[in-house]
Amino acid sequence: MGRRSFSRLIGAAVGPVVSRPLGFLLAWWFPSVCLHCRRWVPPYRHLCDACRYAAPRVIPPICVKCGRPVVAPGLSADFHGLCTPCLERPSALDGVRAWGRMESPLREWIHAFKYRGLARVVDRLAEWMAEDMRPWLQETGAEVITFVPLHRRRQRARGFNQAARLAQALARQWGLPCVDVLVRRHYERPQVGQTAAQRWDAVLGAFAVRPRRDLRSFERWLIVDDVMTTGATLHACAGVLKRAGTRHVYGLTVATTPAVEVE
Ligand SMILES: [Zn+2]
Ligand SMILES: [Zn+2]
User: Fold this and answer.
1) In terms of domains, do 42 and 159 share one?
2) Which of 41, 58, 121, 124 lies at a 20 to 30 A Cα distance from 100?
């Protein structure tokens, strides 16, 4: 095993758990490498600055509501309409955007924090998202950020909630408050392999507002998650927030699934 792959292994194994001084000592001894291009990067950065531009970004035309790329013959970049799923199933959200598409290499970076526990990858992506999504944030007028909660059993298994970490990092960079107001009541099995309709039904009713939270001090909310697939999770969370008295709810994710159709 080469020194680089050995340091990656060490970084992946101990990065999230060691104390700061020990972490720096290990990083000095075993510097980390970029997940994508394998260049050397500062301790636990995991992704180098150049690889930001390797991420597959969402580019117009997009659905004005769910923000997913849309495909149809002859559609121009200034398309200003709804995709077929949004027409068929109106969402509780006022608008959603994703920073990138759930394709390689962004998919692997997301898997790195979701399944390999590399929590600091979230911080890197949040840095890039904070910069790139700032104009859209200003359009929404969002005053406060919250996140999609994990069920406590899933959170215990993973060690952290990636959506919460992302929301906190974005809130810090945008100077907005980040509040923990939602709770996940049901434990659902991973959604891989379910149809869109099954996912949509499974997730409704899974969320609630935490007891004794008054949400009326803010009118415009932003809810953050890592990936949008059908939009059902964000829709369910936004519905709960609106029933609790919030007026506008927007959604933001790191990545969204590939293009949807328009009629
Ligand atoms: Zn790189
Ligand atoms: Zn849409």
Assistant:
1) no
2) 41
